[in-house]
Specification:
The chain is built from 12 helices and 27 strands. By secondary structure, it is α/β, with parallel strands linked by helices. It has 4 domains: about 160 residues, HUPs (Rossmann fold, 3-Layer(aba) Sandwich), CATH 3.40.50; about 100 residues, Glutamyl-tRNA Synthetase, Domain 3 (Glutamyl-tRNA Synthetase, domain 3, Alpha-Beta Complex); about 140 residues, Ribosomal Protein L25, Chain P, CATH 2.40.240; about 120 residues, Ribosomal Protein L25, Chain P (Beta Barrel). Bound molecules: adenosine-5'-triphosphate (ATP) and magnesium ion (MG) (2 copies). The site of one magnesium ion has 2 residues, from loops.
Length: about 575
């Protein structure tokens, strides 16, 4: 794709492949390992969002492009926030996006909690070899002794306790003899390091909590910074890709894997961490806490509301997996933070759907058009291509009759300059039908236009030789009033009016777009009755629409607007 954004990780991987850095690796059983192994490591504590989609496309995409493997790993080391429901939702989202954790060598679906026994043994090793100790300071003392960015920290009074004593305490921590917070295991690095992450980081804490997979087997749990490099090394990851805020964690990542390699737990080459700038999209918030607030305060209709940036929401909105992959490729992968315009997301789904989506006619703001000289009761069949660039996809058929629905905005009594649609005395083409000339309109007692009148030219029908004799500038869509399918259509728009709704501590609820959802009753071409849930269409002149995957039923579709045809925002 010529529009693909740059991705610095490709350069790194290509150089590593060229130098053979990860070539000829095998597992302990002698099974060959691919030269590129990445991973997607979500915490199963919520619904995935567009930012996670970026990480999925990046990690699985790199593995696919370089003949490698991407492991699907649940980073479930924090027992209190995690649930099976989220595990299922995440697997669903990854599959829907078009990726798979299976390869010739099998399934690569892992849970960090399965490594708890190994992680525990490694921690015992670190204690025994003098690299870690049990600290018995209170949380307050520990915080006070940590120092600050400008001030070095102070060694814990427990730092030099004998290894045997630490080991004994650690085993008793595991046995459940202590309460939460009574002791903690820390590694011994440098309390004066300018990098706070190296000031004797904690690796194990006591947490009497039920874990969604290991139950009550453990009451001590590894810290994220300890668990993550170990998970990567166990899974033979070569390129561990994470967001920029983890840059300062990398020295500990490397330190830990070096110590554990000295201890014989791992073999070189070791995994290496690379950081990239997280995806920020304008008009979108991705903080889980704030998204939860939108759901709990009923500002949106659930996690899968088509306005939500969750993958379930984006999917229900009618985005395709291909459009998200295209978007993620186009945004590129860099090391400098920035904002991606929401318009890029919309452009990606337009570009993906344009060549695929069958066309259909929908009148969203109906106004009655009466063809006065059209015979009462006559119904003539018109046809239009399913797709203008794919004649092989055939034609759709719909009748023209005396009374039609047209768009309210396709008629005016007083045309502004450049208006080529219906006004008294003007001719337009009824798309795929006849040329008509407007003769006037009917109004109700408030002066509102309730019907438009016209006459048609019987020799002007589209596709017949006579059609060429009529040169008209306006070309409007319509549906037969007696044949149209009445359907609920939900016109969705951006959820916020502010491009950075929660930047700088702003109250994002003040930036809600009051017009982000409008529900209307529209008149559709009758063939739309057969639309299947999740089927996408281009409603001509309007945009792309999808039959809602939850509320559509056979014969009674409900449509969501995915995106308009053109970007009209702020214009
Ligand atoms: P959140 O802050 O929304 O809770 P998280 O980082 O805590 O997200 P994880 O489950 O840890 O959620 O994320 C899984 C992976 O997705 C991580 O590797 C993380 O770096 C990546 N990720 C999350 N948000 C983004 C983003 N906006 N852009 C790119 N990658 C992201
Ligand atoms: Mg999180
Ligand atoms: Mg995280």
């Amino acid at each position: 794709d010529a529009t693909a954004g740059s991705n610095f990780l490709r350069g790194i991987i290509e150089a590593d492949l060229a130098s053979g850095k990860h070539a000829s690796r095998t597992t302990v059983n002698g099974t060959p390992l691919p030269p590129v192994v990445t991973r997607f490591p979500p915490e199963p504590n919520g619904y995935l969002h567009i930012g996670h989609a970026k990480s999925i496309c990046l990690n699985f995409g790199l593995a696919r492009d370089y003949g490698g493997r991407c492991t699907m790993r649940f980073d479930d080391t924090n027992p209190t926030k995690e649930e099976q429901e989220y595990v299922d939702g995440i697997l669903d989202a990854v599959k829907w996006l078009g990726f798979d954790w299976k390869d010739q060598s099998g399934e690569h679906l892992y849970f960090a909690s399965d490594y708890f026994p190994q992680m525990y043994h490694m921690a015992e090793y670190l204690i025994q070899s003098g690299h870690a100790y049990v600290d018995s300071q209170s949380a307050e003392q520990m915080a006070a002794n940590r120092g600050s960015f400008s001030e070095p920290g102070k060694n814990s009074p427990y730092r030099d306790r004998p290894a045997q004593e630490s080991l004994d305490l650690f085993r008793r921590m595991k046995a459940g003899e202590f309460k939460d917070g009574e002791h903690i295991v820390r590694v011994k690095i440098d309390m004066a390091s300018p990098n706070m992450n190296l000031r004797d980081p904690a690796i194990y804490r006591i947490r009497h909590a039920h874990h969604h997979r290991t139950g009550d087997e453990w009451c001590i749990y590894p810290m994220y910074d300890y668990a993550h490099p170990i998970e990567d090394a166990i899974e033979h990851v070569t390129h561990s890709v994470c967001t920029l805020e983890f840059q300062d964690h990398r020295p500990f990542y490397d330190w830990l894997l070096e110590r554990l390699t000295e201890g014989g737990f791992f073999k070189r080459p070791l995994p290496y961490q690379y950081e990239f700038a997280r995806l920020n999209v304008t008009y979108v918030i991705t903080s889980k806490r704030k998204l939860r607030q939108l759901v709990e305060e009923n500002i949106v209709d659930g996690w899968d509301d088509p306005r939500m940036p969750t993958i379930v929401g984006i999917r229900r909105r009618g985005f395709t997996p291909e459009s998200l992959q295209l978007f993620c490729d186009r945004t590129g992968t860099t090391k400098s933070d920035g904002w991606t315009d929401y318009g890029m997301l919309e452009a990606a789904v337009r570009d993906d759907l344009d060549p695929k989506a069958p066309r259909a006619t929908a009148v969203l703001r109906p106004l009655r058009l009466v063809i006065d000289n059209f015979p009462e009761g006559l119904s003539e069949e018109c046809s239009a291509p399913v797709h203008p660039h794919h004649p092989e996809r055939g034609h759709r058929h719909f009748p023209i009759t005396k009374e039609l629905w047209i768009e309210e905005e396709d008629f005016t009594e007083t045309p502004p300059k450049g208006y080529f649609r219906l006004y008294p005395g003007n001719k337009v083409r009824l798309r795929y039908g006849y040329v008509v000339e407007c003769t006037g309109c009917d109004k109700d007692e408030h002066g509102r236009v309730i019907a438009v009148h016209c006459n048609y030219f019987a020799d002007s029908r589209s596709g017949t030789p006579g059609a060429d004799n009529y040169k008209v500038k306006g070309n409007i869509h319509w549906v037969s009033a007696s044949h149209a399918l009445e359907a609920e259509v939900r016109l969705y728009d951006r959820l916020f009016t502010d491009p950075q709704p929660d930047a700088g501590g702003k109250d994002f609820k003040l930036a809600l777009n009051p017009k982000s959802k409008e529900v209307i009753t529209a008149y559709l071409e009758q063939g739309m009755r057969a639309a299947l849930p999740d089927e996408k269409f281009q409603f001509e002149r309007h945009g792309y629409f999808v039959a809602d995957r939850v509320d559509s039923t056979p014969g009674k579709p409900v449509f969501n607007r995915v995106v308009t045809l053109k970007d009209s925002w702020g214009k």
